[in-house]
Each structure stands twice: as structure tokens, then as C-alpha cells.
Amino acid sequence: MLRQQPPRRFTELALISASFGAVYGTYLQYFNDGLPLDKTLLGCVAAILAFWLSSQLKETSEDDSNFRAVLIEQFCFGAGLSLLAHALVPYGLLARRTPFLVVGGSLLSAILVTLWRRFTRPDIQDRDRLLLVGFDNLTAGLLSSLRKPVCGVCGPFSGDLPPGITFLGPLQNFEQIVAETQPTDILIGVPNWDNVVSPAVLLNLRRRGIRITESSLLYEKVFSRVCCERLQPVDLILSSTLRGDSRTMAIQAVYNNLIGLTCLLLLAPVMLLFAILIRLTSGPGPVIESLACAGFQYIPFRLQRFRTTTREGLTTGVGRVLQALHLNNLPQLINVVRGDMALVGPRPVRSEFAEHLSALMPFYAQRFSVKPGLTGWAQIHLSPQEVADTRSEIEYDLFYIKESSLWLDLEILLDGLSSMKTAPAAPGGLQPEGNAA
Q1: Where are the domains of the chain?
Q2: DSSP strand pairing (211-214 vs 150-157)
Q3: Which of 435, 437, 434 is nearest to 309 (CA)?
Q4: How confident is the model at residue 336 (pLDDT cuts 50, 70, 90)?
Q5: Residue 436 neighbours by CB distance under 10 Å
Q6: Which of 292, 303, 378, 421 is most buried when burial is the number of CB atoms within 10 A of its CB?
Q7: Cα 159 to Cα 190, 227, 414, distances in angstroms
Q8: pTM greater than 0.85
Q9: How many CB atoms lie within 10 A of CB 212?
Q10: What string of DSSP letters covers 199-210?
Q11: Can you spell out the DSSP letters for 166-214?
Q12: Among 245, 318, 266, 258, which residue's Cα sits nearest to residue 287?
């Protein structure tokens, strides 16, 4: 945590005092229930000091750009500590309007303090200094996201260094370089870094308050996907985070079946209408076609979807409407109810490609440790207009498997409903209906 200068602390205290003062005035105007003024004022002062203390203990990281998450975290932490402070003064035993004062004052204080720190963030960042240990293509790709001044690079680097970044020397002089540059952050971009940099030295630097990050972990934080370039076979063998968690999957199965069945019943009239239109306009052939796909643990299943083409492979008028409205995959709700698929998960893959791609890329097999989904983390991040990129898709899928939870599923579903994105074509993916086997 960066140490604030006294003026910044006093400014934040003034903002918090003004917030609670405004709410306290409202309290006296509309909710005053006859309590002595000294009792209510004591409670207000206790809330101000408690929230200010919480803002110093839980200072916002300068790397956190999610304003809403920072605001909620600051409000919850400050309100909780304020309520605790009220329990230690007589006001907390007598007042009937404690929740109003604490919640209102904490919310207004959280907004002002968060905005204040956001607008004054450059003053903090100017004191940051980032030392790069090694420099490769992965580090170069992260450079624009670092938002910290780079004091130089030590250790090996491939290619030419970008303008403005200085080579400071080999890793043999690492401790001397750290002493001279005095970095606040160190980014390690050397594969198998423990063989070239002493973990004991890094641990000692961390104890001194220097933040140390490995480039693959920063890649995951910045792009919300796992870095396959740095995955090692031991990570796939020993790490349980890159495999589906049985407890999480059991919870997901409950709401997958309930939501899937509810949606299937509600949308049954719409599906019946489109089925009739397909039968009348698409010529001979099934209304719902199926594709052989690999599911959980490579268990095969038949993926259901509306047929949108004629036997000659021409897209019908009804098919174009279904594709434009993203409704051609509605029958996949049947797969969800059957248990073949989940609402959220990796994109379904045709069986003939699953084993082949798993043999080419060992980490590809990890995506079959969970059920495929109607939508997924990769689908909402990869645009249909982008060129197919299997590696990027797998990286997103592995991130979803690693972070899988009810809240992540809810975020994906809401994002998918709002944007109505379709999965991009990728090697081994589902091909357009006209090319379906």
C-alpha cells in the first residue's frame, strides 16, 4: 500500500466529514426522534472516523480501473466499520436512525473518496517505478497495459527493446540494479525464472514492500484469459484449478436444468412456430438437425439446432431470420435439459476434431473437464468478425474453468443477452449448416 501524504489524508477526511455532515443534517431535519444532540453528534463523529480509518486500511489499488467494484468494496468496508463504531458508543444503543446515517453517509463518502482517488491517481503513479526482469513478446504485449513508468530491463531479452526502455545489465547484477533503481514493482518475464533469479532474493524484496508479478499472471489479469504460452505439463497434471470443480458443477447442474426447462417451456410456442415455417419453406429434410459433438469428458452427444438451409446448401428466408435473431440454436435448450450441455461453458466442438486438437495441443483437453455451453466466456469476448483463433478461445475457456462460479455464469449470461454475440468460426468448431455433415 502506498503511503499517502498528510494533505491527501486530510482532504479525504474533509470529504468524508462533508458527506456524513450532509446526511446528518438530513437526519436532524426529517428523522429526528428527540434524542439529545450530543448523543447523535457523537455517533456522527464516530461514523466519520470509522469510515476514514477504513479508507486508509483498504486503499484502492491504482491498477484497479473498475470504478463500480471499487465503490462497492469501499462502501461495504466503511459501512461495516462504522456500524461497529456505533456499537461502542451510547448513540448505538439509543438511536433509531443508525442505519440511515451509516448507510447514507458511507455511500456518499465512498463515492467522493473513490472519485477523488481516481482523479488524483497520476500523483500516485508518478512515484511508481517498474523494473522488468527479462523482455520477450509476452512482456511487449503487456507493456501498453502496465500504466507505470519503466525504469529499465535486466536479464535476457529477445529482439530490440522499445524506445525509452534501457537495458540495465545481466541478471548476475540483479541485486545491485534493484538497489540503484529502487523500483516499486518488478515484472518477471523470464520462463522458469526460479532457475535464474533467487526466490530468496525476491522474497526479501517482497517483504520490503516491492510488488512482484510474473508476466503470465499479469496477462491473465489484464486479458481475463489464461496464458497458454507459459503453461507447462506440470500445470496440467498437478493444478486442480484448470479442471472443472465437482462441487461447482453440481451447483451449476441444479440451476442449469431449472432455467433450461423453464426457458424451453416458455419458448415452446415460438419454437413450434419456426418449426412449422421451416417445414413449409425449406423443402425435404428434418426441421431440427443434429451434429455429433464431444461433451463432458469427451462423451458424445447430438447437438440440436434448427435447419436453416435447403438440401442444396442455400440459406432459406426463415433461416436468415433465425440467424439474424440468433434463434437457430434455440433447440440446444433440449441438450441443456438432457444434461448434455450447460447454459455457460466452452463452445461445443464436433467429435471428429476433438481428439485431433487434443493431440496437437495438450491443454486443449482441459476444456472437456466441464460441459459445453450455450454461451461462454470466449463467445462474449471474441467477435464473430474476428479471424478464427483457437488459442485465444482456449485461453478464455481455461480462464472460465479456473474461475467458474455462479456469479461468473450470471455475468456471462447477462452480457450474452445484452450483446447477442455468436461464436466465431474456429478450427474444430461448428460449421455453417450448409457444410454440416
Answers
A1: 6-123, 128-223, 246-435
A2: unpaired
A3: 434
A4: very high
A5: 15
A6: 378
A7: 14, 21, 43
A8: no
A9: 16
A10: HHHHHHHHHTT-
A11: -EEE-GGGHHHHHHHH--SEEEE--TTGGGTS-HHHHHHHHHTT-EEEE
A12: 318
